[in-house]
Predict the structure of Dipeptide/oligopeptide/nickel ABC transporter ATP-binding protein.
Amino acid sequence: MSLLDVRNLTVTYAGGAAAVRGVDLRLEAGQKLGLAGESGCGKSTLALALLRLLPSGARITGEVLLDGEDVLTMKWGRVRAVRWAGASVVFQGAMHSLNAVHRIGDQIAEPILLHKKATAAGAKRKTGELLEQVGLPAARADAYPHELSGGQRQRVMIAMALACDPQLIIADEPTTALDVMIQAQILRLIEQLVSDQDLGLIMISHDLAVLADTCDRLAVMYAGRVVEEGPAAQVYEDARHPYARALSAAFPRIGDPASRFAPQGLAGDPPDPAALPSGCTFHPRCPVALESCGEEDPALREAGAERRAACVLVGLPGAESRAAARDPQARGERPAEEPEALEEARPSTP
């Protein structure tokens, strides 16, 4: 039995905005799943829906089986017990998630006192152990959030998520606004904790390169749906869906001058979830769209070993190679509209 099994999950906000549309995901203990996509694609809504943290006006359907038990049908008393102890969230923006007027030690100890029924002395001892586990001195428990750096606050958030020994951690952009050195430290810390404690991890990020390096599997979301899923390195290096391919091409490859001087982009924005286009929701931005894409909204289909993609071109003989030939993202070409500016950016040789 999987640690987490999400089946046909949908989230519709008051007003009719379909933020999540029929998502299916599965996660095993000790596995790391990356969730990628632009802002507005439904990643954070999906994460909050897993523990019923959305506002009361949101309508959620489907199943969220955590260790075989459906979170969506639990009574509220059981939901409160599952939060922290069964699954916990590392929210993005640690400064906004921590209470500015309470010491961090008290904030870490609170769920331990509530869920573990620990004594004050026991909670204090556990708090010190958690801080040391994430690379902070136990003495920092007496500090207020504003007395810590951004990386230290993010470590406190991770310590809080681990406070009640959960089976699943949901990390919503845990390295946002951190410099690259601190990002690397936080990512290595998360990897080590997942490995040492056999946790399940869902990591949300815009950065496919980070997810490919950190996670075992990668799911790419667009307009509330998963449009591609598979082994992280394969999705990053050889995406089958045009949107996933565009996301991957947006990040330059170290040591590849062509990608350095020809950064790729994708025109436009994700659609309004309250007014989705007909057919494939990506077709207005897709460089290889067919006429039928405006009418047919393809389901996820097999795209290789342990891979799925929601594109009409997947599985058609010769269609993927012809599409790649038409797609500048796949060919790694420089965008035609800005050749002169990019040539000026290239350093001249003496």
